[in-house]
């Protein structure tokens, strides 16, 4: 004769293995939601666009300052003389 196990489902380890993963994800999502609500992001500075333009100007000036060195390096590597800039004539 076969015996039937009449214990409740939470007494079986496989049930906890199946339920445990999704349950852990749900708990982690609530923790993440709490952190997101309790620590809001700082407000972006209203002048961020002008600061970005200034940063780009600074980067362009640095690139233009290195242009002669870049032309000399390319000439040394290829042996081809760089073209003269038409605006400097």
Q: Could you walk me through the main structural features you see in this protein, from its secondary elements to its overall organization?
A:
The chain is an all-alpha fold and 89 residues long. The protein has a domain at 47-79. 63% of the residues lie in helices and 0% in strands. The chain has 3 helices and no strands. The protein is elongated. The mean pLDDT is 79.
* Structural class by secondary-structure content: mainly alpha
How do the SSEs run, as a string of H and E? Answer: HHH
- The coarse overall form would be elongated
The main pleated sheet reads as: none
* Radius of gyration, whole Å: 33 Å
The total of helices stands at: 3
Helix content: 55-70%
Strand content of the residues, in percent?
under 5%
Number of strands: 0
Q: Which whole number gives the mean pLDDT?
A: 79
Identify low-pLDDT runs: none
Q: How far is it from the N-terminal to the C-terminal residue, by CA?
A: 106 Å
